[in-house]
Amino acid sequence: MASALLRELKDIQAMLAAPAAGSPRIGAAAASPPLHTAATSEDEEATAPPLPLPPASPSKHARELERQVTALRQELAEANDRCRVLDEALQATRHDASLAVAKLHSSGSTQLAAKAEETRQLADLVFQLRNEADGLRAQLAASAAASHAAEASTAQLQEAAAEWRRQGEEGLEVAAQERARSTALQVEVERLSAELEAVRRERDDQRRRRQAAEAAVARLQADGSGPALVAELRSRCAQERAWRKAVCRYLEGEMQAKAELERVLLNVGTSLRMQQALRLGPVSRVPSASPLVSAAARRIASIRTVLAPASHPEHSKRQPTPARGLAAEVTAAAGAAGAMAPSKQELLRRVAQLVPDLAPDKYKGQAGKIAVVGGCREYTGAPFFASMAALKIGADISHVFCTEGAATVIKGYSPELIVHPYLPDSSQQGGGQQGQEQARQQAVQAIEPWLDRFDAVVIGPGLGRDPLILSTVAEVMRAVRRRSLPMVVDADGLWLVNQDPSLVAGYANAVLTPNKVEFGRLADTLGVAVDSPDALQSICRSLGGPVVVRKGHEDAVGDGHQVVVCDEEGSPRRAGGQGDVLSGCIAAYSAWAQRAAGASREQLHESGGSGDGSPGLPPLVVAAYAGCLTTRRASQRAFAKQRRSMGATDLLVELGGVADELAEQGSS
């Protein structure tokens, strides 16, 4: 039994000396430190290997220490179990030893002496194992202390990392604020640089003008003709003021005569309608108490033979006397009044005459070639709507002349459009004022040859307010005038006209399409009271030729002589781009008006015939009215389908059907 116990104790010692390969180890290497036995010296205990330094990552080090502490605790528990077993074995051995000693004393056998020696060795081994277990406990305590220290160090490192993270976030915020401030400062510097450049250019211009003025003064002083020139200028200014006063007096007289004539015509028309309704006699038989007997009615009593029905027996016996003075004016004005306010059926007939027939023997271009001058980097939709409206209503070809930044976008909207990136943009031009002037001349030279191919031109949709673009378009407008092309001016083109009214003044083939705000600006520029009932005609007369379409709840078309109102019901939805659609429609109808009237471009405004020689509205007025009517009907149809989601693209879909409908209504 003692031999078996000895073998078991040796096996336990071997297990403690060489633990399993899968058990955790303490330290940087995988080997376990030597166990403290009775043979271990105190110097070796003093020189025990130190605990390894924690790794760079606090979280990994803490997890490694926890695993080591757990392994040590398991080993300690196993060692305690083994010690308990050894104690029990020791007690049993001592008991056996005492029995053996008793037997030895009684028998004196050598075998018992050997057993006693073996038992003594076994006891020494047990004490050695106990010392090793105490060493393991000491190492476990040291490991636990190191674990606590590592945990404290890990907490400190985590706090330091959190502090560093917070400082880093604050640094990032400060850096972002600094970048934003730097960007704002850079933008401000660019703006100030642009302003400085503009101030420098203005200063250079002023210097050149001052030098030119000084040179002119020097020449005048050298020639001695300065006082004579000043006197001549003063004389011309006085003549100009006298001429303007005379013109104002003449216009006031004309306005008074017109007002008197309108009152006379009102009385005459009312009298005629009452006579026809009541089948009365001539005007002279109207009771004296009737409100029709006014001063104007009494003044036209001499022309009752003209106004009375021809079938009246009293007048059938008389020979008509020629009207003289005011009577002749009233008669002529009455005929003019009939021409000024044609019936809606007559207007529809005139519109139907403009729409070209669809026939297989026609070739491309006969239905009109339209050009739209406008479109910059910010505004690409407006020229698209205007040019596509001309195509959708029936024109064959539509071109767009725009800046380079808008050309690709507009071309991407539709492959049906021919896009020319000829307009210069000051933001992309260098070389100062001289470079911009050269770019403007090159653009005009590139655009002008194309104008000979077109039947009508639209100026302004998406044009923008860039000075270089506007100056270029002003030259294009002058080139259009030289060719007597119909020219529809809208949007920023009207703003350009406000800056220089001479661009359209006296040009009878121009159509201006201002909305309420643009109409007010135009009236202010021309010195016309915008709230006056005659504001539209006053603007037309001030410009001396162009047709003006005043857009609003009802579109009014005037040319200075007559006004036609389009009261067709439209859409309550006011979507962006509807005005551009109207401009494209008017341009297409203007191109057709020239062909339908059989007139040259110079006769387009003056010709009042309807194609058969009968008097009527000028073709350009009819074209403007037709554009308003078509746009309103298309808007009404689109709104019925789309309601609040209606946009300008929905109008484009309806234009062709409306044009066909107008052609059929006018011919029926």
From TrEMBL:
Stored Gene3D superfamilies: 3.40.1190.20
EC number of the protein: 4.2.1.93
Domain (YjeF C-terminal): residue spans on this chain: 347-662
Segments of this protein annotated with the region Disordered: 20-62
GO biological processes: metabolite repair; nicotinamide nucleotide metabolic process
Binding site for (6S)-NADPHX: G462, N515, K516, V517, E518, F519, G520, R521, D580
Binding site for ATP: 551-555, 570-579
Keyword Lipid biosynthesis tagged: no
Sequence similarity: Belongs to the NnrD/CARKD family.
Protein name: ATP-dependent (S)-NAD(P)H-hydrate dehydratase
Species whose genome carries this gene: Chlorella sorokiniana (Freshwater green alga)
Taxonomy of the source species: Eukaryota, Viridiplantae, Chlorophyta, core chlorophytes, Trebouxiophyceae
